[in-house]
Amino acid sequence: MVLRRLLSMQMSRRVNPSHLLNILLLLLLLFLLFLLPNHYKDAEDYPLFPPVYTDYTTQTNTTGHRLLCMVLTTPANYLTKAVHVQATWGRRCDTLLFISSSERGLVSWFITPDIVSDLPVLELAGVLGREHLWNKVKLGLSTIWRDYSSQFDFLIKADDDTFLIVDNLKHLLSQLSPSDPLILGHHQEDRGVAYLSGGPGYVLSHAAVREIVEVGLGGDLPCHLPHPVGQEVQVYPNEDLQMGKCASLLHIPVQSSEVQGQSTFLPFLLPRHLVPGLTVKWWLDRTKECQQVVSCVSPALVSMHYVRPEMMYVYDYFVYGFRREI
Predict the structure, then answer these.
(1) In angstroms, rounded to a whole number, what is the distance separating the alpha carbons of residues 53 and 266?
(2) How far is the C-alpha of 195 from the C-alpha of 256, rounded, in Å?
(3) What pLDDT does 130 receive?
(4) Spatial distance between the Cα atoms of 215 and 213, rounded to a whole number of angstroms
(5) Cα gap 120→115, rounded to integer Å
(6) Which end of the chain is more exposed for a tag (fewer CB within 10 A), N or C?
(7) In the chain, what is the greatest distance between 2 CA atoms, to the nearest angstrom?
């Protein structure tokens, strides 16, 4: 009886509006301090810092084949990764385009119109999340072919944690023709499919992009994988594996990145390939490159993967800013 009376007294009391407002403000503060930043940053907690534009980043080879760089990103990575790609190696591409999602979720609080206007980004619907990577690449290629087909000879698909030495790539491509269908990168094999590792990027010739978009993604749609007739790749989110299967179905030659037996496209960070004791077993079981050579890193290095934003500037300095005096 006493407990019931106390409860009825509490319920009969009026809630003080100022107390309610204070509680709401406290909840909002907790949201801004903890929930939203955790949603905005990815698992590795990349730092937020402004991009740095240095003088030597403009010194690049603008001759030869025209290169379009198609970089996969997400709205959550615009300020932590994409802006630093744009400030470093992305500036050396003849055309730089980020492929992202139009679904922004909570990060829309941080993305102002000036950020998007400064980034050359194509935001596509229905491609948010790793499970939609192949759709992201397919839609990205289709959009680029529709709107930019006359502006490139070769296209490289990269990630927002890829570091690319554009001059070395252009030198490598100078020996190839954009009129020949081909896909080039770090050659690997998994689930019976030969493919090019997506992390360090893979290159498609102009003719290959046309074949993939107009034949693979048009007509009978053979590249809307998994392929249904006995040759299917299992439902698997890795877009590089799906691209390898697509290339196989369309008879597009897969070309290794090796130069004189050494890799120019590195699927992992540089130390993983320079130091034998740090090599990743998963990669050793799948790579088709550099299997008989102790030192697998080519002096004509083109790209590497899993590069943190601050390291973009370190590599950029050593490639373009560093000079030996003796």
Answers:
(1) 26
(2) 10
(3) 81
(4) 6
(5) 10
(6) C
(7) 93
Q: What is the pLDDT of residue 1?
A: 53
Q: Which residues of the chain have pLDDT under 50?
A: 2-3, 6-7, 9-12, 31-43, 227-232
Q: Would you state the pLDDT for residue 110? A: 63
What is the phi/psi pair of residue 76, to 5°? -65, -20
Going from the C-alpha of 38 to that of each of 61, 98, 111, the distances in angstroms are 40, 23, 16
Three-state SS annotation for the chain? CHHHHHHHHHHHCCCCHHHHHHHHHHHHHHHHHHHHHHHHCCCCCCCCCCCCCCHHHHCCCCCCCCEEEEEECCHHHHHHHHHHHHHCHHHHCCEEEEEEECCCHHHHHCCCHHHHHHCCEEEECCCCCHHHHHHHHHHHHHHHHHHHHHHCCEEEEEECCCEECHHHHHHHHCCCCCCCCCEEECEEEECCEEEECCCCCEEEEHHHHHHHHHHHCCCCCCCCCCCCCCCCCCCCCCHHHHHHHHHHHCCCCEEECCECCEECEECCCHHHHHCHHHCCHHHHCCECCCCCCCCCECCCCCEECCCCHHHHHHHHHHHHHCCCCC
- Tokens 């030495």 map to which residue? 165
Q: What is the distance between the alpha carbons of residues 24 and 220, in angstroms, rounded to a whole number?
A: 55
Query: For residue 62, what pLDDT is reported?
Result: 58
Q: Within a 13 Å sphere around the CA of 123, how many CA atoms are in the beta-carbon half?
A: 14
Whole-structure pTM value: 0.82
Beta-bridge partners for 159: 72
138: left (phi over 0), alpha (psi -120 to 50) or beta: alpha
Closest to 288 in 3D by CA, of 253, 260, 251, 261: 261
Copy the structure tokens of residue 99: 């492929």
Q: How far apart are CA 157 and CA 203, in angstroms?
A: 6
Give the pLDDT score at 276.
Answer: 82
pLDDT of the residue at 279: 84
Residue 237: asked if its preceding bond is cis (omega within 30°), the reply is: no
